[in-house]
Structures are given as structure tokens and as C-alpha cells.
């Protein structure tokens, strides 16, 4: 869509405290970049909003012209949902303030904040909430899709800790949502994605966290994975909530925490965080360090904020990404065999296979409290394909991800919506399962024209909503 076909854009520019960026601006190409370099979209209008009033102004402008809306927080969605080719982008990157109310154990977080902003502010009070494992992840996208991270087994998902929010709805109103003011909409925001408006403020319940946790990585050769993973499975079967672990099968990345001699080596890493008593943690995790002969063991007391940035170097903006995911119940011998077989065929030194241990507090939240669809899975696996932007072998990397996903499909009990890629509307519907009908009803109430459609979209016009 050409900017010249959108009437009144000059008046929109005058009405914003922030900036309106168009293809004619020098800043345009930088403003339309997102984390996934594989996404190349050219939005006609990017409204870089300074505050909630700017967001409401831009939404009203789009609604009056029937233009779809994309919301950009951190821009970290692999599917590129922060951009559109035919509508208005609400860029919230100027809205990153975090205010902590320690006596109420609440964090008030603006919609464009990144997780490093939240961690820095909350840790000043020895408080925290489950956040992304990459510090540049946007708060908005992670929260609205669920939010898995190091603390989830003790503190619940990010979405489970969302107690209030301010959002601008499709009719341009700025409303506050909490357990007493539209609890149904709060339910939808807890996992239903960005379908219901642009959230300009998140209110999070906080927990005692850090500032020191017992954390790090234990790295074994990938050749030992068929021995290491069954032992890992047995140890975590009755793990305390304080222990969060993420397996990662990949070629060892060239990051500062790992000796150069290991770079490029096929590995299985156990990334762990013990957020309880440190001495108790040392005793509990000792077996993790003795499943064989580790190539590297960095587990030690560290600052929680340092843990939250530990793998930032493995997920850099501008690389090209494609992924799929599967929720499954247990690391059975068959599942382990499938994971190791496909991880051994990895096609890029940038690709990875993180396997998240769920359960704990995640599994104890009642279904009716949130729209999150992966509540009772034991694990989630993310087949994460990544490659350099100047390479022309995209098809090979994508094929590896899809083949891996198909091999895991017989073990699937669901999908984590934030890890969807190009599965389309059927994939979104499957991820939400029996929650789909309720989500469609909510979408029809707050965004019947589907202006907020650049997300894991719940289409209010789908005729089969009652079949879910």
C-alpha cells in the first residue's frame, strides 16, 4: 500500500508527540528492521509512539480507514508480527519505563520495554518475575503468548503474573483491565496473544528472586546424549520448583563463557537456574554434573541479571530465523532417540534445539485462569533454525526444521503459541485447543473487524469456531 493512498497521514504526524515514519524518511529502513532478518516488509506508516495517547491516536486513525494494525514491542517475533505491508505499525520502542512498587510487590512496565529493563529495575529490590531467556526479548510479545523462562517452575509463566494492564482497543479507547474490571479480557491477555488491543502498560506480580542464583551450563559431547538424557530425565522427574533447566543440543557457539577449543563442537548442554537456597541447590544439582565426563561446567553462584544475559550472544538480531515447536509429556527413550537423531543432522552453526522443562507452578494454574494452551505438557522443544543473511541455502535449513517437527509430531500434546512460525490459522487454533471458542467470542467483542491481525491471529470471522 502506497503512503499516497492513505489520506490524512500529515494530520496524524502533527497529532503525535512521537514520530510518524514513512518510506520517504531516512530512518525508514532502520525503523522497519526486526530481530529476524528473514522478514522484509514495508509498512506505509510507522507510528513511533511516545505515550498511550499517541497509541490511541494512531489506532483511531487506522480504525477510521479500516487499516490493519501491527504492534511492535521488542520486534522479536520470528514470524515478523511487528510489521505489516498494508497498514499502521505501532512502534512502542520509546515506551520502556519500568516502575517497581516494592511494598505492593508490583512492577508497572510500559509496552515497549525489553526484559533487560524489567530485570534491572526489579533486581534493585531483590524481586523478579519470569522473563525471557534473551534479555532483548520484548515484554509484550512474551507475556501475551504465555512467557516461559528460567523462573517459570517456581513463579509461573509471565502471563500467570499479569494482574492488570492498560490497553488501547480497536475503537481507540484506553482501558484498564484487572480481576474486577473485565476479568474475561484479562483472561485473554494471559496467553491469547496480541489479539485484543495494544497493551501500553503491564502490571506484574513480583517474587523474591536473587540477586544471586546458582546457575550456569554443564556441557557434554553430543555423542554422549543417549546416555546423558535418560539420567537427566530421571533426575528432574521430581525436581523442586526452584530448579529450572533447559537442554540445548547444537554446535557449541563462540561465546565468551565457553573456551575457544569447544567452539563448533556438537554438544548437549544443560542450562540451569536454581533460584532457592544456594547450599541446598549445590547438593541437589550435583548429579547433573556427573552424568558422564562434562566438557565444561560453569555452574556457580551468579547474579540473576547476568544469567538473563548469558545466551544473548547466540540470538543476534539480523540473522535469519525459522522455527517450529512441539509440547510433549515425557522424555521417553523414543523421544530422546528422535531428538538426538535430528539434532545430529543440524544444518547450521547458528541453529539450536532448546528443550524446556515445564511443570511445577506452570502446571498448577487452573485452565480457567488463562488462555495459555500448553498448561499440562511436561516439556517443550523448539527446533530453531538460524543462518547468516548472505547465505542462499535457506531451503536446507527450513527443511531440517520441518523434518524435525514432523518426526516429533507423534509425541505432541500441543504447541506453544509464541513458537509458532508459518503454521497459519489452523496451527493457531490447534495451539489453543478447547480455549478457541472462548477466545473467538472475546475477539468478536473487542476487535470484531480484526484490525489487530498481525499476531497469532484469532479470526472473529471463522465459521468453525464452535467446533473447537
UniProtKB/TrEMBL annotation:
Lineage: Bacteria, Bacillati, Actinomycetota, Actinomycetes, Micromonosporales
Segments forming a coiled coil: none
PROSITE patterns assigned to the protein according to its UniProt record, in alphabetical order: FAD_PCMH, OX2_COVAL_FAD
InterPro entries xref list: BBE (IPR012951), FAD-bd_PCMH (IPR016166), FAD-bd_PCMH-like_sf (IPR036318), FAD-bd_PCMH_sub1 (IPR016167), FAD-bd_PCMH_sub2 (IPR016169), FAD-linked_Oxidoreductase (IPR050416), Oxid_FAD_bind_N (IPR006094), Oxy_OxRdtase_FAD_BS (IPR006093)
Family: Belongs to the oxygen-dependent FAD-linked oxidoreductase family.
Protein name: FAD-linked oxidase
GO molecular function: FAD binding; oxidoreductase activity
Domain FAD-binding PCMH-type: 39-209
PANTHER family cross-referenced by the UniProt entry: BINDING OXIDOREDUCTASE, PUTATIVE (AFU_ORTHOLOGUE AFUA_1G17690)-RELATED, FAD-BINDING PCMH-TYPE DOMAIN-CONTAINING PROTEIN
Entry's transmembrane regions: none
Alphabetic keyword roster: FAD, Flavoprotein, Oxidoreductase
Cofactor field: FAD
Amino acid at each position: 500500500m502506497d503512503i499516497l493512498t492513505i489520506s490524512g497521514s500529515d494530520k496524524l504526524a502533527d497529532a503525535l508527540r512521537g514520530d510518524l515514519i514513512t518510506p520517504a524518511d531516512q530512518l525508514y529502513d532502520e525503523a522497519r528492521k526486526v530481530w529476524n532478518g528473514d522478514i522484509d516488509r514495508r509498512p506505509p506508516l510507522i507510528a513511533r509512539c511516545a505515550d498511550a495517547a499517541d497509541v490511541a491516536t494512531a489506532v483511531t486513525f487506522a480504525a477510521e480507514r479500516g487499516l490493519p494494525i501491527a504492534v511492535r514491542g521488542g520486534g522479536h517475533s520470528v514470524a515478523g508480527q511487528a510489521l505489516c505491508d498494508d497498514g499502521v505499525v505501532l512502534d512502542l520502542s520509546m515506551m520502556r519505563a519500568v516502575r517497581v512498587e516494592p511494598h505492593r510487590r508490583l512492577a508497572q512496565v510500559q509496552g515497549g520495554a525489553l526484559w533487560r529493563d524489567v530485570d534491572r529495575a526489579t533486581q534493585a529490590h531483590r524481586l523478579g518475575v519470569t522473563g525471557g531467556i534473551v534479555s532483548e526479548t520484548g515484554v509484550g510479545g512474551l507475556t501475551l503468548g504465555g512467557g516461559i523462562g528460567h523462573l517459570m517452575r517456581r513463579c509461573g509463566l509471565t502471563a500467570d503474573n499479569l494482574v492488570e494492564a492498560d490497553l488501547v482497543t480497536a475503537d481507540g479507547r484506553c482501558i484498564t483491565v484487572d480481576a474486577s474490571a473485565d476479568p474475561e479480557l484479562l483472561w485473554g491477555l494471559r496467553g491469547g496473544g496480541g489479539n485484543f488491543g495494544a497493551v501500553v502498560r503491564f502490571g506484574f506480580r513480583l517474587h523474591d528472586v536473587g540477586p544471586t542464583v546458582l546457575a550456569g551450563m554443564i556441557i557434554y559431547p553430543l555423542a554422549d546424549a543417549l546416555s546423558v538424557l535418560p539420567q537427566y530425565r530421571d533426575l528432574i522427574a521430581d525436581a523442586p520448583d526452584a530448579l529450572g533447566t533447559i537442554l540445548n543440543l547444537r554446535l557449541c557457539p563462540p561465546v565468551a563463557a565457553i573456551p575457544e577449543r569447544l567452539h563448533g563442537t556438537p554438544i548437549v548442554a544443560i542450562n540451569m537456574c536454581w533460584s532457592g537456597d544456594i547450599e541446598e541447590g549445590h547438593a541437589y544439582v550435583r548429579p547433573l554434573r556427573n552424568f558422564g565426563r562434562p566438557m565444561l561446567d560453569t555452574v556457580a553462584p551468579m547474579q540473576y541479571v547476568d544469567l538473563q544475559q548469558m545466551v544473548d550472544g547466540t540470538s543476534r538480531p539480523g540473522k535469519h530465523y525459522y522455527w517450529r515447536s512441539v509440547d510433549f509429556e515425557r522424555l521417553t527413550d523414543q523421544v530422546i532417540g528422535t531428538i538426538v537423531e535430528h539434532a545430529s543432522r543440524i544444518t547450521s552453526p547458528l541453529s539450536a534445539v532448546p528443550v524446556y522443562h515445564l511443570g511445577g507452578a506452570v502446571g498448577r494454574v487452573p485452565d480457567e485462569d488463562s488462555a495459555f494452551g500448553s498448561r499440562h505438557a511436561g516439556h517443550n522443544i523448539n527446533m530453531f533454525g538460524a543462518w547468516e543473511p548472505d547465505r542462499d541455502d535457506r531451503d536446507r535449513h527450513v527443511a531440517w526444521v520441518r523434518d524435525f517437527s514432523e518426526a516429533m509430531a507423534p509425541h505432541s500434546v500441543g504447541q506453544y503459541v509464541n513458537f509458532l512460525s508459518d503454521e497459519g490459522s489452523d496451527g493457531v487454533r490447534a495451539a489453543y485447543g478447547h480455549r478457541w471458542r472462548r477466545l473467538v467470542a472475546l475477539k468478536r467483542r473487542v476487535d470484531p473487524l480484526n484490525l489487530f491481525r498481525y499476531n497469532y491471529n484469532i479470526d472473529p470471522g471463522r465459521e468453525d469456531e464452535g467446533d473447537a
